[in-house]
Design a protein that fits this description.
Elements (H helix, E strand, L loop, with lengths): L19 H13 L4 E6 L6 H16 L2 E6 L4 H14 L8 H16 L7 E5 L7 H7 L4 E6 L8 H11 L4 E4 L13 E3 L16 H11 L8 E5 L8 H14 L4 E6 L8 H12 L5 E5 L3 H10 L2 E4 L8 H8 L4 E4 L4 H4 L6 E4 L4 H12 L2 H18 L2 H15 L5
Parallel strand pairs: 1-2, 1-3, 3-4, 4-5, 5-6, 7-8, 7-10, 8-9, 10-11, 11-12
Helix pairs in contact: 1-15, 3-4, 3-6, 7-10, 8-13, 11-14
The chain binds uridine-5'-diphosphate.
Uridine-5'-diphosphate binds next to helix 2, strand 8 and helix 11.
């Protein structure tokens, strides 16, 4: 296990983006949790939504006075191939889980659990990767409350993968899902729902001065914002359907000949499939100078890409939540997204973007064209998107929901 380095965050800074009642509620929950030690465990310090959430939530908790640590599992590719198969299986289609794969999972989670030296009152295990640590931790910390924060949609899992994960999940004290429906059939003692959020003060989401925007636009050259741009920002992952986005772009280009497509994606440390998919997407894009496949962009560049694009697309086939949707809406960029997972919580069809069925390439293309061709519509949708995210998907709201779960689980008087 290792502890990632964290940025500085102060709760007071959020007063510029959220209302005072919410901040007061947070302070009061933090007081209730005075003296409680919290540990978050996940499987990567960078890349993907969970790392993104923890990078902000952990330092804000510390600033609020809640004693909070974050540890990341140490493992090699063999383990992450197993956990990616589990992740895919929980979403409906993953490689078979052999006895050898299960043994790898048990060995690595056991070894990582032995490296946790301190004792905690609340241990939050994020997603299936660190869940197996409970085997050892429930004995090492008999008084701790275990929370499984599941960011995955469990509504249509493969039975074999669900059965494997359930053996661990049923032993936590409480599970937390991103939507009520996600709990599916899994056997957990009790469940809460907490919608994720973005951090409006993070480099990726904060407002930028003109000079920075200009410099980042230059960095993205030959992509040019002087002509229409549609972008998708996602890990290279089959569920994110970059090929569907490419096809939607090709159709949209028939109506908008100078349209450009930016497909920006990173490789998360716990996702061994990424490189292969990236190479396939890059090969598919070769020959079209208006398609830009971009990797490992710094956060300020992602910020500018989401901010300056005319439309953001999120054509996922399954999606736990899809932080990238709120990230774009917060920057006043309308989103054409699939009607799956957490996307419909964020995209309000005809208000801040368009929702299309996950396989509806021509619907996605029509949505893109409608927005590219109508600047006033983009401005209206952009303003609506900003307010929708301000109300529901900023960090102080999520953090208050999470701290409430801790207060309830510990049966403290909040
Ligand atoms: N991300 C990034 N650079 C990339 C691709 C993704 O910084 O090239 C970030 C993205 O901005 C978002 C997170 O990774 O903050 C992805 O979270 P999301 O919930 O959308 O999807 P996940 O990867 O967790 O399935």
């Amino acid at each position: 296990m290792h502890a990632p380095s964290l940025p500085d965050r102060s709760i007071e800074a959020y007063a510029t983006v959220t209302d005072g009642d919410r901040l007061e509620r947070l302070q009061s929950l933090a007081e209730t949790l005075d003296g409680v030690r919290v540990l978050h465990v996940n499987s990567t310090a960078t890349g993907g939504g969970v790392a993104e959430l923890l990078r902000s939530i952990v330092p804000v908790c510390v600033d609020l006075g809640v004693d909070t640590d974050w540890l990341v599992v140490d493992a090699d590719d063999e383990f992450f191939e197993v956990t990616k198969a589990i992740h895919n299986g929980l979403q409906g289609s993953g490689a078979e889980l052999t006895e050898a794969m299960k043994a790898t999972y048990r060995d690595v989670t056991e070894r990582n659990a032995t490296e946790i030296e301190d004792e905690y009152d609340v241990v939050v295990l994020h997603d299936p990767q660190p869940l197996g640590t409970i085997d050892r931790l429930e004995n090492a910390m008999p008084n701790a409350t275990f929370v499984w924060r599941c960011h995955i949609d469990l509504t249509a899992p493969a039975a074999e993968h669900l059965a494997f994960v359930s053996e661990y999940a049923k032993r936590v004290d409480r599970a937390v899902f991103s939507r009520a429906a996600y709990r599916g059939e899994i056997d957990v003692p009790s469940a809460s729902v907490v919608h994720p959020s973005i951090d409006p003060l993070a480099e990726k989401n904060r407002s930028l001065d003109e000079g920075t925007v200009a410099a980042e636009r230059d960095r993205l050259d030959p992509l040019s914002f002087d002509a229409p741009v549609v972008a998708q920002v996602s890990r290279f992952d089959p569920w994110k359907d970059q090929f569907g986005t490419l096809e939607a772009y090709r159709r949209a280009r028939e109506a908008v000949p100078d349209l450009q497509l930016a497909l920006a994606g990173g490789m998360a440390g716990d996702d061994p499939e990424g490189m292969e998919l990236y190479e396939r997407v890059a090969r598919e894009a070769v020959g079209d100078p208006n398609v830009h496949v971009l990797t490992d962009l710094p956060d300020a560049t992602v910020n500018v890409l989401q901010r300056e694009s005319d439309v953001v697309v999120q054509k996922s086939l399954r999606e736990g939540f899809g932080l990238v949707v709120s990230e774009a809406l917060w920057k006043r960029t309308p989103v054409v997204g699939s009607d799956v997972g957490g996307i419909p919580l964020q995209v309000e069809d005809g208000e801040n973007g368009y929702l299309v069925a996950p396989n509806d390439v021509s619907g996605a293309s029509d949505g893109v064209v409608a927005l590219i061709e109508d600047e006033r519509l983009r401005t209206t949708f952009g303003a609506n998107g900003r307010e929708h995210v301000r109300e529901r998907f900023l960090l102080p709201r999520q953090l208050a929901d999470l701290l409430e779960v801790f207060v309830e689980a510990l049966e403290l008087d909040g």
